[in-house]
From TrEMBL:
This is L-ascorbate oxidase. Belongs to the multicopper oxidase family. InterPro entries: Cu-oxidase-like_N, Cu-oxidase_2nd, Cu-oxidase_C, Cu-oxidase_fam, Cupredoxin, CuRO_2_AO-like. Residues 31-145, 158-298, 378-518 form the Plastocyanin-like domain. Pfam families: Cu-oxidase, Cu-oxidase_2, Cu-oxidase_3.
Amino acid sequence: MAARVTFLALLLCLSTTVIRAEDPYLFFTWNVTYGTISPLGVPQQGILINNEFPGPNINSTTNNNIVINVFNNLDEPLLFSWNGIQHRKNSWQDGMPGTNCPIQPGKNFTYHFQVKDQIGSYFYFLSTAFHKAAGGFGGLRVNSRLLIPVPFADPEDDYQVIIGDWYTKSHSTLRKILDGGRSINRPDGVLINGKSGNGTDEPLFTMKPGKTYRYRICNVGIKTSLNFRIQGHMMKLVEMDGSHVVQNTYDALDIHVGQCLSVLVTADQTPKDYHMVASTRFIKQVFTATATIRYEGSNIPASPELPEGPTGIVYSLNQFRSFRWNLTASAARPNPQGSYHYGGINITRTIKIVNSASTVDGKLRYAINGVSHTNPETPLKLAEYYQVPEKVFKYDTVSDEPTPESADKITVQPNVVNATFRDFVEIVFENHEKSIQSWHLDGYSFFAVAIEAGKWTPEKRKNYNLLDAVSRHTIQVYPGCWAAIMLTFDNAGMWNLRSNLWERNYLGQQLYVSVTSPARSLRDEYNIPDNAELCGIVKDLPKPPPYTI
């Protein structure tokens, strides 16, 4: 009996050890510099990470701890943000101007975050000073743990495809145009992994005949939706913004700014070269980039006849409606995605957002419900944590329902919405303008339950997909249309809700959602990191009492 008790105690000890073991760490050192690049054939100043453009890909697994020591060798402050990474309880690592003091020139800062309970395809980017238009972006993948089943066979290889529109003007020139109150207008071209494809590039990827490959495609651009297709090949969609989806097959896919998706492509055609194509959508002049995929052992060039891209909004809207959450697949945990029944939860708050453009003092500004956000010197999160928010910003300067005056009159000020912890909310985006919009929410994924033409009314809820809408972090809104999303504000922090169209973002079309736990408990939110930079009015203030269990 004593031996049995001893054996059970040993098992308990071992199980406790396993539970307490830390998840693996991945360490990176990034040296951020300027460098001359010529992606469209015109030499220009770009932003490089370890001399790479685009930057290096981050290859991680669910629950990994990612530690990145960033050395800023630019002549301007900078921040990195991690598009789609939720930073559970940890908006301190979000890398937006509303949460973090920037890394000063000649200084370094170490980001430390965990890709907790996430899988899928994401990217990182520079969130400050229009740096995104010069580079400093790259892929960030989160693989499933080996014990968690994935709803498709392991591919032969896993390829990262970074697409986006591109300008030949430097980021500082583009910024001066915006600061002067003008639009940067249309782009100059499109890039695939930093190149436009002019027939002289070496093959970007190689495929073995008969094998299946995973392509992770992210639109990291400034303002343009893109259509992606591969000459002669069908694409099976398997993942979107971190969710497994019903596996429909497409010959072309619209990918809007800020979105990522994964497709499986089988090398089932005649062995030779083939073009992958990314072309602009919803603008008058079509720009196209190509890259070459080579069948292993082949020396037959690709056909010069590129597959035509789609036209019009109806195609794109119908494609959105074909996307469905894979209810039986496991995501980051063993339980199926569909075990979360979002459609049965009562809505506690509805926030209606209308984007607008107007002028303030003769200069172009973009707004949400009549308020055009501006970043104060003191990051909003720091002001809130140090309990001096009233010295930096006011809460709820926008109402949940836009007023008639907000369509024409724009007020420039910090835009912060106060949210109740764990409320289940509905957010409706209405686009009364003539150009497509793309919206992203940091810290969360949400259920994209509907996109329809016209204006939203409560009666439209009967058309919501309350069963298998895809859980994602970015949604597009077509001109003259509305989109509805649903989510629970269960991740405490200060989170950026923004236009992914970067001139709109830079000129005010964004806000922050403050989600605070009344318990001030480590169960809900982490304390400020010891290495956090301090700036603005909090720089010399005593640190508040830390959160406790």
